[in-house]
Specification:
The complex is a heterotrimer.
Chain A lengths: L11 E6 L2 E6 L4 H7 L23 E4 L6 E2 L10 E3 L3 H17 L14 H8 L16 E2 L5 E4 L8 H10 L4 E4 L6 E4 L16 H5 L5 E3 L13 H11 L1
Parallel strand pairs in A: 1-5
Antiparallel strand pairs in A: 1-2, 3-4, 3-5, 6-7, 7-10, 8-9
Chain B lengths: L27 E7 L5 H7 L4 H6 L2 E5 L12 E7 L2 E3 H13 E7 H6 L11 H11 L15 E6 L9 E3 L6 H12 L15
Parallel strand pairs in B: 1-2, 1-3, 3-5, 5-7
Antiparallel strand pairs in B: 4-6
Chain C lengths: L2 H12 L7 E6 L2 H5 L2 H14 L22 H7 L10 E3 L2 E8 L11 E5 L8 E3 L7 H6 L16 H4 L17 H6 L4 H9 L2 H11 L11 H10 L6 E6 L8 H8 L1 H15 L3 E7 L3 H16 L15 E7 L8 H8 L23 E5 H5 L1 H7 L1 H5 L9 E8 L5 E6 L4 H8 L9 E6 L5 E4 L9 H6 L8 E6 L4 H15 L5 H18 L5 H17 L3 H5 L2 H16 L5
Parallel strand pairs in C: 1-3, 6-7, 6-9, 7-8, 10-14
Antiparallel strand pairs in C: 1-4, 2-3, 4-5, 10-11, 12-13, 12-14
Classes of the chains: A alpha+beta, B alpha/beta, C alpha/beta.
């Protein structure tokens, strides 16, 4: 599908990212420009086709002349902007954030059905996390296997809310939502009822496909067998926009 | 979806030649042990196959489940520990390795992050023992106490109890990763294992 | 209605009871209520009715609802339950006195407070009584005509009162917060009418900008700049929000203002709405402040009835409606984007900024959000002019600031001082120093987002910039005083626990980082930590500060960093061998 044409009132700006001169539409975000130009930038909550959440903080970048950091997913480009995506400081922060995620719940990769196909696992490797310096919390979270097709394991959830957003924005069912706060936050179906009892779930499985980890998986998968396919998302999202 | 590429080896294809082919003077002395692990990481070490022959030119394995020696020597260059720290013996052994080894390697996910053994951590120890030795046993259920080390209340990764110099995650770490790490150490460099392995690899 | 009409009204309300010469004012704000003010109020009423009727020829001061004579008796009848209304004026030895419920007089630790004063006199000119019990009522009424009751007397010339300058709190403890007429009688709503009938919105903006007022919620953002930005934003619909979700431990400034002078806040919001072109406002107030909510509800109802809220205010084309929204107990909803999400009916979670509320706020419309105290400053600025306000305070921090003194300090309560007042004056003179002969150790400003100031920096003038140089912030005005027995690691752990349990869970560094920071502080406090744990603590602080999504996470490490800066030895003393 061709990209949508640039609206008449949107300007095109030039900026530099990691010293590279680039042009971009003024309504694009930094992460979109990075992805277009194969500039690697880690992210977990961002997904092309879904609304911006800005919560994983992995895509933080430095912008020249600005004291604070900016989430590349939530920051629009501007003329003359100078962006740095891979400084020593950013690498250190990203590494720590990934460690915090691993320590928060029980991500035991070796026995995960998503082993080898997990975005968190991949990020740990690319961010240089060879061990987690903070202690593991070892809190116990529940699983929900009540749905005939899918399974939810809160132990592997990173609360990126991709499932919540895809269900609301693309499928239009809004089966998923969040409850609780802090580390007690949970993604829930309907009003925290078992997924299998949900009256709003259409069983489309989009939530499973967009889940970056092994938190949402297909029933009947064993270690390493859960491969996800997210290609549908940008296509569906653009069609919806066009409508 | 990002297909992960693991262990397309970055390690040197061959080890540097060493003066005096058989000379043992410059060899690195090595000790290995497994704590609460499945021995899979040691198996992966054996998977180095013919490369083991190359390595032996540079390494002297003084103490290991793979050799006969019964006592950990006083001084060792490289200590390699597999498995998590789950019982009193694991803890003693981890401390002994730290005391006597110049470089300590945490090998495999159990040692690096607790892995499968740590899955008991959300449950109280008494409940774990009950489950294993009483609830599912029909004949003379009892918790063994004699001749076995006491379990620690929490399974911990190695670096939570002693300082660790090199981490090699993976379940198990591929043989190529082990080869890379040892080669780098032999060459006097600090290996970055995330280039060749990862959690759960 | 023009200014002259309103002035006539005010005059009329002031002279409504020409026979009354004195008032016995009972503080009916939350803290005095909790120490027994309603019983004192009831006892005063009983004592008043027990006094023999006046001599023949004098007016028979019969039982009358004095709290309100707005022709709104139905509503006021319900208020009697809260103790503000009741039977009224009697002659006591030649004086005519009435009992009146008022707002906060400041010295909360000495409550219940009762002030006997000539009608309409300011707090300083009253005879103040402390720790009043119901059985003291007859003696207090007797003192209207005679000497003060010595054993209860709380002199108002003591530094606690004398060193204050009351602008925001000028009506607190003087007027009946439930009385619309009482507010108008002291000049209330004149600034609004003045703005509507004699000033353009641009002129209002100019005065606010000229005043140098900065946001009192904590950030210290220039109010005039904020208002002008929203005013310039394109869009038909704009909103004004009053942030009354005061949640810092030890802070109760906004509660006191709302409980003591709710019309003042509404008036400030209405002036703001006029200046920026909004027609709708919300007060977002935490449900844990039931009394404030009740008084605000009454105030909105009465202001609307009197035509100072609603359509065509003061017969001008300007309309402004105000609604109350209750918070559901989340500290993070004090963060403006989370607050707006909550008003919209969504989960109270922050979102990345920009866009700022001024550009895209409530339902995507330009929105002005200010704190209670900021709005309470507006009416006096319009009345006296921006230049007058700019003459108070320091070069970059104008006006006064309300502080809530809490912790180990003699005078716990609410104070208002000019910006730039030395911290030492606040703690030792106004606050009365540390009780029990113990030594001062530190004061925490800015609550869980701020830091501590140790004894060696007590001479700092308190303003936005001064506090920043010490690594802390003004915050909304909470001051928690700690004496020499305070354990600073424990203090840091306490605030981290607060942030951890108040983290909304949206962004990773705040959600998981505060957990880890709390665990580390706990480990240090228990003497189980080593040097590398301290290094990890500092590193995590940096990451949480730099990467969190909203102010809650970004400032959560501040108490740790601050105690590390001034009391590092206390941390190190708790470390076990490396």
């Amino acid at each position: 599908m061709p990209p949508p044409p640039t609206p008449a009132n949107v300007r095109v700006v030039t900026l530099t990212i990691d010293g590279q001169d680039l042009s971009a539409r003024a309504d694009e975000t930094i992460i979109e420009v990075c992805r277009e130009n194969q500039i690697p930038i880690p992210s977990l909550c961002y997904l092309d086709g879904l609304s911006i959440w800005g919560a994983c903080r992995l895509c933080l970048v430095e912008i020249a002349g600005q004291g604070r950091l900016f989430a590349a997913c939530a920051t629009q480009v501007a003329e003359g902007m100078q962006v740095l995506t891979n400084t020593e400081r950013l690498r250190r922060y990203r590494r720590t954030i990934v460690e915090l995620l691993f320590a928060e719940r029980s991500h035991i990769c070796s026995v995960c059905v998503s082993n080898g196909h997990c975005e968190l696992q991949h990020l740990a490797q690319t961010c240089g996390v060879d061990h987690v310096r903070v202690p593991y919390r070892q809190a116990r979270y529940q699983m929900d296997s009540s749905h005939e097709l899918f399974r939810l394991d809160h132990n592997r959830c990173i609360l990126c809310t991709r499932c919540v957003r895809v269900c609301d924005e693309i499928e239009g069912a809004h089966t998923w939502d969040l409850m609780g706060r802090g580390s007690d936050c949970l993604v829930i179906t309907d009003l925290a009822q078992p997924w299998g009892d949900s009256e709003t779930c259409t069983g489309c499985g989009k939530c499973v496909q967009v889940c970056p980890t092994g938190a949402l998986v297909k029933q009947g998968t064993s270690a390493g067998e859960m491969v996800k396919d997210q290609h549908f998302l940008p296509i569906l999202a653009r069609r919806r926009q066009a409508r | 979806m990002n297909r992960l590429s693991v262990a397309t080896v970055v390690a040197p294809a061959s080890l540097p030649p060493m003066a005096g082919e058989t000379g043992s003077m410059n060899k690195l002395s090595v000790a290995t042990a497994w704590l609460d692990g499945c021995s899979g990481c040691h198996m992966s070490f054996l998977d180095l196959d013919e490369r083991l022959v190359d390595l032996v030119r540079y390494l002297d394995i003084l103490y290991s489940p793979l050799v006969d020696a019964k006592h950990l020597p006083e001084r060792v260059d490289v200590g390699i520990l597999e498995g998590s720290v789950s019982n009193a013996d694991d803890l003693r052994q981890a401390q002994a390795f730290r005391d006597r080894c110049r470089i300590l390697i945490s090998l495999g996910d159990c040692a690096v992050n607790g892995n499968v053994p740590s899955m008991r951590n959300p449950y109280p120890l008494a409940a774990v023992l009950d489950r294993a030795y009483r609830e599912n046993v029909t004949l003379q259920p009892q918790v063994p106490r004699v001749g076995v080390p006491a379990l620690l209340p929490r399974v911990r990764p190695l670096h939570e109890v002693v300082a660790v110099d090199v981490f090699v995650p993976g379940c198990p770490p591929p043989a190529d990763a082990i080869f890379y790490v040892l080669s780098e150490l032999i060459a006097g460099r600090t290996p970055d294992s995330t280039q060749v392995t990862r959690f759960g690899a | 209605m023009n200014l002259d009409d309103l002035a006539d009204k005010a005059e009329e309300y002031r002279n409504q009871d020409p026979d009354i010469t004195h008032e016995a004012r009972v503080c009916m704000a939350a803290s005095c209520q909790s120490s027994g003010a309603p019983e004192v109020m009831a006892a005063l009423h009983r004592a008043l009715t027990a006094i023999p009727p006046p001599a023949p020829g004098e007016r028979q001061g019969d039982v009358e609802g004095d709290a309100e004579r707005d022709g709104d008796s139905e509503g006021d009848g319900t208020m009697a339950g809260a103790g503000l209304a009741g039977p009224a004026d009697r002659v006591t030895r030649g004086h005519r006195c009435k009992v009146k419920g008022v707002g906060c007089m400041g010295l909360c630790s000495a409550g219940p407070l009762v002030a006997v004063a000539e009608k309409g006199a300011e707090l300083m000119a009253s005879t103040l009584y402390r720790e009043v019990r119901p059985e003291d009522a007859p003696a207090i009424l007797a003192s209207v005509a005679g000497p003060p009751v010595a054993r209860l007397h709380c002199p108002t010339d003591q530094p606690f009162f004398a060193r204050q300058q009351r602008i925001v709190l000028e009506n607190a403890g003087v007027i009946d917060p439930d009385s619309f007429k009482g507010y108008v009688a002291v000049g209330g709503y004149a600034p609004l009418v003045q703005a509507l009938t004699e000033m353009t919105p641009a002129e209002v903006l100019r005065e606010i900008t000229l005043s140098g007022l900065r946001g009192r919620g904590g950030g210290g953002y220039p109010t005039g700049l904020k208002w002008s930005t929203v005013a310039k934003m394109p869009g038909e619909r704009k909103f004004v929000i009053c942030n009354a979700d005061e949640g810092d431990p030890g802070a109760f400034m906004d509660r006191a203002v709302l409980e003591s002078d709710p019309h003042r806040v509404l008036e400030g919001m209405a002036i703001a709405a006029y200046a920026i072109g909004a027609a709708k406002g919300y007060v977002y107030v935490r449900a844990e402040y039931p009394l404030a909510v009740e008084r605000l509800t009454t105030a909105i109802r009465k202001a609307k009835r009197a035509g100072f809220l609603g359509g065509k205010i003061a017969e001008t084309p300007f309309s402004f409606e105000v609604e109350i929204r209750l918070g559901a107990g989340a500290f993070v909803c004090g963060e403006e984007t989370a607050l707006m999400a909550s008003i919209e009916g969504n989960r109270g979670q922050p979102r990345p900024r920009p866009p700022y509320p001024a550009e895209s706020g409530l339902w995507g419309c330009p929105t002005l959000i200010n704190n209670v105290e900021t709005f309470a400053n507006i009416a006096p600025i319009v009345r006296h002019g921006g230049a007058w306000f700019a003459g108070i305070g320091t070069e970059k921090s104008k006006g006064t600031k309300v502080f809530a003194l809490a912790g180990t300090i003699e005078n716990t309560g609410l104070i208002e001082v000019p910006m730039g007042t030395r911290l030492r004056d606040i703690i030792t003179a106004i606050g009365g120093g540390i009780p029990g002969g113990r030594a001062f150790k530190a004061v925490q400003t800015g609550g869980p987002s701020g830091g501590c100031i140790p004894a060696e920096h007590l001479d700092i003038p308190v303003d936005y910039d001064g506090l920043k140089t010490l690594g802390t912030i003004m915050g909304s005005g909470g001051m928690i005083v700690m004496d020499e027995t305070a354990d600073m690691v424990d203090v840091a752990r306490y605030f981290m626990e607060f942030c951890m349990s108040e983290s909304c869970g949206k962004c990773v560094p705040c959600r998981a980082g505060t957990q880890q920071l709390h665990a580390l502080l706990d480990k240090i406090a228990k003497g189980e930590a080593r040097h590398q744990d301290l290094a990890l603590l500092e590193e995590l602080c940096e990451v949480v500060q730099a990467t969190s999504l909203c102010g809650l996470g970004q400032t959560a490490p501040n108490p740790v960093l601050s105690t590390l800066r001034f009391f590092r030895d206390e941390y190190e003393a708790k470390l076990c061998a490396p």
